[in-house]
Amino acid sequence: MKVGVVSTNSSPYVIRDGDKYSGISIEIWEKVAKKSDISFEYIEAGEDLDNAIERLKNKEFDILVGPYTITSKRYQDINYTIPYYQADIALATSKNTNNLEKYIKISKMFIYIIVFFLFVLIVNNLIVNFDIKKSFVDSILDSIPNFKNRKMYILYTIIFLCLIIVYINTFNPDISLTNNKKDYLVDKNLAYYTDNDMFNNIIKKYKAKSTLIKVKKTSDHKKQVQDNFIFNYYIKNQDNVYGFLDDSSKIAYILNHNIKKYRDIKIIENDLAFVLYAFILPKKSDHLDIINEKLREAQKEKINQIIITKYLGPKFGNHVTF
Parallel, antiparallel, or unpaired for β 63-69 and 243-247? Predict the structure, then answer.
């Protein structure tokens, strides 16, 4: 079989070293090919994934191996194998996120409850100890609880808890200390380099701003990792760009190399969107069924998880579980 691969900007899925290939997609394919008793050769399919698909339709390749997303638009002309990996889109930044606003909101909530609690006790004392001979001001002052009567503490606790329940059920306050993406991404400028519906929908959903950048194409694995264009763009434009969007596996792979100039960058949001990666074959390919069968076997035998862990660590192991 002629196996088309695009090594341009495809790490960690396709990694090229001269005429040798490695990476997540490559190793999973090689396990499947061995199980299927398929002999093959790798052929560079150019610098663009979409162009490689056009060449596949022209019968230049028997299969395309790499990070190809499953989309409904492509189904008319090609066949996908079953997915071998689920990727998610993540947000990376060097900006520090804190929960100060959350603490302020929660503090305000308890202040409101305490004030209402004291109001309830004052009204209760005012009614119970009402004396027509006293002035209104004196009655109010005498009704302020002093909390000296310890026998009343249980009752006070019950009343206070009841007020908390009533407040939460009435006003539905946000008491989570985790950041709400809908709040803190509003009007934030996010960089990305793939102009498609998925990224545009993320920007629109969280009411963020966006900067579409043109990434330099390279098949040099060292440059993809140590001199990554989107990482470099972000570092040079931190005053204007809050962070950047990309496949979390690609981001994590670069960060796992502990490159000094990228040390402050971290993933702060995962699961902004999901995509499934699969191999691509021409319509009516005789190889589709056997490849799918062996892909299922590899998944059941945890082979894919072992490969993912090798490149990305155990955190990404569940990305191959379907």
Answer: unpaired
| 19-64 pLDDT per residue, tens | 899 999 999 999 999 999 999 999 999 988 889 999 999 999 999 9
Burial class (CB in 10 A: 0-12, 13-18, 19+), 55: middle
User: What is the spatial distance between Cα 90 and Cα 83, in angstroms, rounded to a whole number?
Assistant: 20
Helix (H, G, I), strand (E, B) or coil at 90: strand
Quote the radius of gyration of the chain (alpha carbons, Å). Answer: 30
Express each pLDDT in 90-103 by its tens digit: 999 998 755 555 67
Domains of the chain are 2-86+276-320 (3.40.190.10), 92-97+179-271 (3.40.190), 100-171 (no CATH)
- What predicted TM-score, i.e. pTM, was given to this entire model? 0.75
d(CA 208, CA 243): 11
Element (H or E) spanning 233, and its range?
helix 229-236
